[in-house]
Amino acid sequence: RAMEVPPSPFPMSRAAAPALGYLRYLRGGPGRALELREVRGARREDIKDVGHKYYLELELEDVLDNARAVPCTAEVLYPLGSPASAPDVQVTLQGQLQSTEGADNEFYSRTRSLEQELEAQNIPDSHGRVPPELEPLLRLGAAAAGFVIWQNSRENTHLNLAQIKHLKQVKRPDEFLQFDYVLLLHEMVSQEILPWEVTVLWHPGDSVQVLQDT
């Protein structure tokens, strides 16, 4: 039984949150910022004994590519009977994202050459400002937050990254960069602010890896 969802209700924007989170986790990093510009359309299908499936048409923005519009479609399935299960998300981009190879390599080289491990807090600050040198770390944190949002979204929640409360680089013997983040997520339905600790590994050419999230 399929039920059409009109263009602007809350369930649609809530279902868009894990879709954007999943895509940020999969394709995000220090050199790419993806934002949701608009939910262009949606319908919901109630699948008997399986769950509720949302079909979404989204317009994203590739912020660092001259704010270019990136249309995409997403399917978000909330399974029945398992409240602890993450939604099953599939996303299809229409068009290519700009290569981040140059920006990623520059960030990696600069960070590897630092004598002191990076440490920062309150990104953005209370006035919404982000120092330019911290912007790649905010984007990396947003990719990690994407994983947390995808894994912890439910049909009646709407999670969003509010702020990086703290981050600290951890030296490693291998080629990866490691950062310990404390993320503040805004649960927009209950208006709660939820702190989340994540350990993030990253290397140019690889997807972001979230080792733990609590």
From TrEMBL:
Pfam families: LXN. Keywords: Protease inhibitor, Repeat. GO terms for molecular function: metalloendopeptidase inhibitor activity. Signal peptide: none annotated. InterPro entries: CYSTATIN_LXN, Cystatin_sf, Latexin. GO terms for cellular component: extracellular space. Residues 1-101, 119-214 form the Cystatin LXN-type domain. The keyword Transmembrane does not apply. It comes from the Eukaryota. Belongs to the protease inhibitor I47 (latexin) family. This is LXN protein. It comes from Pitta sordida (Hooded pitta).
